[in-house]
Protein backbone atom coordinates (compact mmCIF):
# COMPACT_ATOMS: atom_id res chain seq x y z
CA UNK A 1 0.00 0.00 0.00
CA UNK A 2 1.31 3.43 -0.92
CA UNK A 3 1.52 5.89 1.94
CA UNK A 4 1.13 9.64 1.73
CA UNK A 5 4.07 11.99 1.57
CA UNK A 6 3.21 13.25 5.05
CA UNK A 7 3.25 9.76 6.56
CA UNK A 8 6.46 8.88 4.71
CA UNK A 9 8.06 12.06 6.06
CA UNK A 10 6.93 11.20 9.61
CA UNK A 11 8.30 7.69 9.22
CA UNK A 12 11.65 9.00 7.99
CA UNK A 13 11.87 11.43 10.92
CA UNK A 14 11.00 8.71 13.42
CA UNK A 15 13.58 6.36 11.95
CA UNK A 16 16.22 9.05 12.56
CA UNK A 17 14.99 10.08 16.01
CA UNK A 18 14.46 6.64 17.58
CA UNK A 19 18.10 5.44 17.36
CA UNK A 20 19.33 8.82 18.66
CA UNK A 21 16.95 8.60 21.63
CA UNK A 22 17.99 4.99 22.29
CA UNK A 23 21.63 6.10 22.33
CA UNK A 24 20.88 9.02 24.66
CA UNK A 25 18.90 6.74 27.00
CA UNK A 26 21.81 4.28 27.15
CA UNK A 27 24.27 7.11 27.86
CA UNK A 28 22.10 8.39 30.72
CA UNK A 29 21.67 4.89 32.17
CA UNK A 30 25.44 4.40 32.02
CA UNK A 31 26.05 7.72 33.78
CA UNK A 32 23.55 6.85 36.50
CA UNK A 33 25.17 3.44 36.99
CA UNK A 34 28.69 4.87 37.14
CA UNK A 35 28.56 5.40 40.90
CA UNK A 36 28.04 9.16 41.00
CA UNK A 37 27.11 10.34 44.48
CA UNK A 38 26.05 13.95 43.88
CA UNK A 39 22.33 13.97 44.62
CA UNK A 40 21.64 16.95 42.35
CA UNK A 41 23.43 15.28 39.46
CA UNK A 42 21.57 12.01 40.04
CA UNK A 43 18.25 13.88 40.15
CA UNK A 44 19.07 15.83 36.97
CA UNK A 45 20.11 12.69 35.08
CA UNK A 46 17.05 10.81 36.37
CA UNK A 47 14.68 13.52 35.17
CA UNK A 48 16.40 13.66 31.78
CA UNK A 49 16.22 9.86 31.52
CA UNK A 50 12.49 9.96 32.27
CA UNK A 51 11.93 12.59 29.56
CA UNK A 52 14.02 10.70 26.99
CA UNK A 53 12.26 7.41 27.82
CA UNK A 54 8.81 8.98 27.44
CA UNK A 55 9.80 10.58 24.14
CA UNK A 56 11.25 7.28 22.91
CA UNK A 57 8.08 5.39 23.90
CA UNK A 58 5.89 7.96 22.14
CA UNK A 59 7.94 7.90 18.94
CA UNK A 60 8.18 4.09 18.94
CA UNK A 61 4.42 3.81 19.32
CA UNK A 62 3.84 6.25 16.45
CA UNK A 63 6.32 4.29 14.31
CA UNK A 64 4.34 1.09 14.99
CA UNK A 65 1.08 2.83 14.13
CA UNK A 66 2.48 3.95 10.79
CA UNK A 67 3.83 0.46 10.09
CA UNK A 68 0.36 -0.98 10.64
CA UNK A 69 -1.07 1.45 8.06
CA UNK A 70 1.39 0.36 5.39
Beta-strand segment tally: 0
Shape label = rod-shaped
Low-confidence stretches: none
What is the succession of H and E elements?
HH
Q: Please indicate the percent range of residues in DSSP E strands (runs of 2 or more).
A: under 5%
Helix content: over 70%
Structural class: mainly alpha
Characterize the largest beta sheet: strand count, sense, and whether it forms a barrel: none
Task: Give Rg in angstroms.
Answer: 16 Å
- Mean of all residue-level pLDDT scores: 95
Intertermini distance: 6 Å
Count, helices: 2
Structural overview:
There is one protein chain. With 70 residues, this protein is an all-alpha fold. 84% of the residues lie in helices and 0% in strands. It is built from 2 helices and no strands. Helix 1 packs antiparallel against helix 2. 4% of the residues are buried.
Helix/strand layout:
Layout (H helix, E strand, L loop, with lengths): L4 H28 L6 H31 L1
Helix pairs in contact: 1-2
Considering the chains and any ligands shown, give keywords for the structure.
mainly alpha, 0% strand
Concise synopsis of the structure shown:
With about 70 residues, the chain is mostly helical. About 85% of the residues lie in helices and about 0% in strands.
Amino acid sequence: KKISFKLQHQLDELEKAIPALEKKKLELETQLASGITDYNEIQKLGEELKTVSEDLDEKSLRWLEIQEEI
